[in-house]
UniProtKB/TrEMBL annotation:
GO terms for biological process, alphabetical: carbohydrate metabolic process
Signal peptide bounds: 1-26
MF annotations from Gene Ontology: beta-glucosidase activity
Matching Pfam families: DUF608, Glyco_hydr_116N
Annotated protein name in UniProt: Glycosyl-hydrolase family 116 catalytic region domain-containing protein
Residues annotated as domain Glycosyl-hydrolase family 116 catalytic region: 499-775
Amino acid sequence: MHRRKFITQTAVSAAGLLSLQMPAWAKGWLPGAERYPLHNIPADKKLDAAWVKSLYQRGLPTAYLKTKNELKYIGMPAGGLHAGTVYLGGDGRLWLWSVYNDEREGIDPKTILWNDGSSERKIRNRDGASYVEPAIASNKRVLEQGFAIQVEVNGKKIIKELKEEDWDEIIFEATYPVANIRYISKDFPLEVTVKAGGIFIPLDADNSSLPASMYDISVRNRGSVPATVTVAGWLENGARKITAKEGEGSRRNAIVSGDKYSGVYSDFKYTAQPEKTKADDGSTCILYLGAGGKPDTNASPWPVTPAFFTTPGNDVATADVSEKLTGSVCAPVQTLAAGGSLQAKYALSWHFNQPFPKLEAKLKDTGKGYYYGTKFTNAAEAGKYIAANPQLWEQTLRWHQTFYDSTLPHWFLERTFLNIGTLATANTYRFGSGRFWGWEGVNACEGTCTHVWQYAQTMGRIFPSLERDCRERTDLGLAMEDNGGIIFRAEYESRPAIDGQAGSILRMYREHQMSADDGFLRRNWENTKKAVRFMLAQDKNGDGLTDTPMENTLDAVWEGEIAWIAGLCIAAAKAAQRMAEEMNDNDFAATCKTYVDKGCRNMDQLFNGEYFIHRPDAVQGRKKLGSYNTCHIDQVYGQSWAWQAGLGRLWDKEKTRSALRALWKYNFTPDVGPYIKTHTGGRPYAVEGEGGMIMNTNPHNESKPFGENVTWQLGYFHECMSGFEHQVASHMMAEGMTDEALVLTKAIHDRYHGAKRNPFNEIECSDHYARAMASYGTFISACGFEYHGPKGYIRFAPQLGKNADFKAPFTVAEGWGTYVRKKAGNLAIHTLILKYGSLQLNEISLGAAAGKTAIVKLGGAIVKASLERNEDGTRLVFPSSIRIRENETLHITIA
């Protein structure tokens, strides 16, 4: 059964699905059958107050240690965006190497057995197999790869490879996009630190998409006498690694060198060129970045001995397909005085430019290969490009330093940001046409699904050009029907999904805000209007509450008026109103405003006194699946989205907060074990002993809470899916429920602790699930950040540390940097430091900042600005636009 394949409403199909997914207690659930299991989530979470308080502390980077057996599952995406999945392991070696266009589902395709408390079930990858039994690095080392350091002190040589077995302790700091790894041994007189990851520069999607991993190795002599040090790196020839057969040809390594690099390029030499290109046709390359490197096309012997560092290399080496052929390159030998240090930088690159055959039938873009294939013809070219542009790694490290140099808790920064690593896995592609395209999870559920991807907040803030491409090329282009409906999987479907429709409209507004001017909106306004009209037309009775049955992200068609979907459409209509006003389309703005006003008033009708519900259809009643009077995780999702897009408060504040408090009371549990043992049928995305927020609960213990006809989708209601949880956490943060937001986020962070599973792989339907990129929304809410590029408007109103000094990163249309707020007596000092690009401003909002006068300086020069007050607090308005450029600082002193 395809998890995301909606089965049309036939009894035969439904019966077939029930036999596969129906929880044991619900089989044969008909009038008079046994009651639904009792709600058993405690209202009192019994959380230690000191522990909750600790969540606010700055702390240190999350560190995973060899001595605690915490390295084996770690797999940080360490390549470029859309260039396949290459993992950086906990001990610093690369693993998985899913760059060969593998069509299998997930990073570790398998089916396991899992006991949910009532029975033993088969769990596929898309059902959580990788959550229960995560992939282990040592089982997935497709290519021989590594580094070694030789030190000679007082005539004695010591060699250590950068692998777990060789060191007393290895400490992996999990700070995506660059991990910091320290190697420690009593018998080794050097301090060794590695910074590793892919090139990653916010706003620069092209240079962040290079098919390569970077290693920045630092060595310091901690002894009292001089030490002679050599660093060596190696990489196995990866060409035709998976499919090569005897007689087809041989693997070939060749030296490549220039003024700024030297290394080994690896490809496959055919005996006779085949008619059809294989999925693993391509090349790999390892380069030392600098002068004086010594490459060897046939590195030996193994294991590493002193000869490895001195054996002269041939210009070319070949090997039969049954043999490994490994190239290496040594950094120049250096003698370090006591306290002296050296740095050795390497780039490991690959090039396998054959998109899946199974995508070719519907995706015409695959014929042009991958985007990186339009830039480079082989792996060596990619490596040489990095060598010729050292600023790319410098900018990556600058972003890394900028992002984590903050007053926000380290663990919080890590968890809210790391899911952007999904873009650096085989979950996403960028084709030669420039088109961005994604699965829901790795190789599962195709089509950049609107009702999943619309939860993701990270890409729109970090690489907005990719989101603009999705809106313009796909949602408002090839996926749009004549009536304005957006087919929710483009080429892979035939109908819209109502939540995806609303989400695409909201994202259209966000993408406009993350643009430098209004050109994007103007180009796409007419099609945006079509999409909005289609959405508004789904309100049959004209009360502002969508009531047309249509597909949603829970893979069903629900009847009636559903707070979750109605609220999301209200938020989308509000975004449309704002866009129409900017386009001076007054009639359409009025139409949208009327819808918003009605909907916001009538949301009260869906409030049951404690939370928002699903009002059944007047004719259908509760025959079909729905959330009805249960407590549903997305019930106020529309307001959550409104905060992300700077749309402000939509409907009643206290009712919204009451709904969030109900989710906390009825759906969050510090231990999901008791719940999933009684409410069976869900997939294991959280297991006994772990905290999480359940999707849908029945606090009033109704006997048929989800309707008369139980279907397989009911299993979703008993799960903890991190993308939905992140959405709620972001909303709680925006509403000032900071304790709850941090606890919920920390529950996810703890579920993905390195001792249990891969911290970088939040799982839903397969690995690196796109919805998990909702996590960045919680960071946005914590900063109280809003931005509108075409208007030149920016806002900071921190929710974490409201009355304390605050520091955090930000991204805008053309740049990124750091915002700092400090208090000095009666003065409030606000600083914007541009680290990259530029920022044009007409207005700055600073929340509820006190003071009557403001002095503004840019680069030491006074800037004219008026200090004004509105319902949002304090704002500074500039009589003419100002532009802050890279390495410039805007100082604001309010007294």
